[in-house]
Specification:
The chain is mostly beta strands and 441 residues long. The chain contains one helix and 37 strands. The strands form nine sheets. Strands 1-10-9-8-7 form a five-stranded antiparallel sheet, with no helix packed on it. A five-stranded mixed sheet has the order 5-31-32-33-34, with no helix packed on it. A four-stranded antiparallel sheet has the order 6-37-36-35, with no helix packed on it.
């Protein structure tokens, strides 16, 4: 294994302000004056999720895992600028981290991601200036041979630890500050798990003292040691990620694999409910969106979407249609409406950004021009990264599509979710170009 550390000489604060589930709530923030005169925040996000944040002006300047603090693709950040000059927002830095689709996780003024180059996967920890604070590399063969390939899971920051998963199943727990390996596992070798057709892409989910992954079976590991705690029956692994939610006084986990929507007990993995759901190529890539007692799922390749209600241990269909066929970009639920991309990358020009009423499945509007893109929402605004490398902002409203700004950032294909954190948007191309642009006010 290859490992390299670079100690920064300066500390870079995040600045002001960075699938839908029943969200853990921000329950407390304690402020402690550090001996050096800096500030220290301890943030508890409920459901066993917490992390320490040093030198942070606003605890909302965080995006510590896939789809953000609440795993819903919505940021509470409001102090950012959704409009910019024709030449686009200011680029603060740009580097190449290797090919892949891993989004950025941001915590304590640092950004974490993964990339692949020359049969090697590398985990990066970057400071506010885009400099490498530490990295960790290991040998890994490319899995996705039809596309640029590379890791598809997003790092998860939890307390003083960061968890990462590579395409072949290299699972690591790092010290988030210094990059030391706390423990590591190989999903295929250590747990006798089968490599999915497109590799492992489940972003790790921390639930109290466990780490949960969709790896074929859903598995839970001790987050401090990597020891297997429980696993479900085997399924064909999906390419989305699990979500935690509460229902009927219990904490449950929802996973959309390549056979079904599966709901299990977060404590022991016991199956609560399942609903068959297969796409034409058995390639589902989205994260379930849980809202109250319903779960929304979708897939591309002509499959479509379904809204299901969980009650009495059963999943019952509320509605289904082919108006929202998410190939790999999970939709975002905002104020009763789903915003997502309908269509496949193979016919990118016909893909549409769709606004659909969550409760009924009624389409409110559809807009072409961004291809098979990805998005998040902040302050009532859509932040879109088109598949042609354009960063776009638009109003998140059911009345119609209203673009606010557009700027070209990359020449290569972009299939990775943009991330807003602390007045900065992190965008990535599939060939590994990672750009950080300034949208602070």
């Amino acid at each position: 294994m290859l490992k390299h550390h670079l100690r920064p000489t300066l500390s870079y604060p995040l600045g002001i302000a960075m699938g839908s589930i029943i969200s853990p709530r921000l329950t407390f923030i304690t402020l402690v004056l550090a001996a050096a005169g800096g500030c220290h925040y301890e943030v508890d996000f409920g459901a066993g999720k917490s992390f320490d944040v040093e030198n942070v002006q606003d605890a909302h300047g965080q995006w510590p895992r896939w789809r953000g603090e609440r795993v819903d693709g919505v940021s509470p950040e409001t102090k950012w600028n959704a409009k910019w000059p024709d030449e686009g927002p200011k680029t603060l830095w740009r580097i190449n981290v290797g090919k892949g689709y891993s989004a950025v996780a941001v915590a304590a003024g640092r950004a974490y991601t993964l990339g692949h180059k020359d049969d090697t996967e590398t985990v990066f920890c970057l400071d506010g200036g885009g400099r490498t604070t530490w990295n960790h590399s290991y040998r890994a063969q490319p899995v996705d041979n039809l596309h640029p390939g590379g890791p598809g899971a997003t790092p998860t920051v939890d307390g003083k630890r960061v968890y990462t998963l590579g395409r072949e199943g290299h699972l690591f727990c790092f010290d988030a500050t210094g990059g030391d390996v706390v423990w590591s596992k190989h999903l295929q070798k250590d747990f006798d798990l089968k490599l999915p057709e497109w590799g492992f892409t489940s972003s790790p989910l921390v639930v109290d003292d466990s780490l949960v992954l969709d790896a074929g079976p859903v598995i839970a590991l001790d987050k401090t040691t990597g020891k297997l705690l429980w696993k479900t029956d085997p399924f064909k692994a999906g390419y989305g990620s699990p979500v935690l939610f509460q229902h009927g006084g219990r904490r449950l986990i929802a996973v959309l694999n390549n056979e079904c929507l599966l709901v299990v007990n977060a404590e022991d993995g016991q199956q609560i409910a399942r609903h068959p759901f297969k796409s034409s190529y058995e390639t589902t890539s989205v994260t379930p969106i849980v809202h109250e007692d319903t779960i929304f799922i979708s897939a591309g390749y002509g499959k479509g979407c379904e809204l299901l209600r969980l009650a009495d241990g059963k999943l019952t269909r509320v509605h289904e249609n082919k108006k929202m066929r998410n190939q790999f970009s999970t939709s975002v639920l905002w104020q009763g409406h789903l915003y997502g991309f309908d269509g496949n990358s193979s016919s990118s020009r016909t893909c549409s950004l769709v606004c659909m009423e969550h409760a009924t499945g009624k389409m409110k509007w559809a807009e072409r021009g961004n291809g098979c893109a990805s998005l998040m929402i902040a302050g009532g605004k859509l932040i879109i990264l088109s598949d042609q490398g354009e960063l776009v902002t638009a109003e998140a409203g059911a009345e119609g599509y209203k673009q606010l700004a557009r700027a070209k950032l990359f020449e290569d294909t972009c299939w990775t979710m943009p991330v807003l954190a602390g007045g900065r948007i992190y965008c990535r191309s599939s060939t590994g170009e990672l750009a950080c642009v300034d949208v602070s006010r």
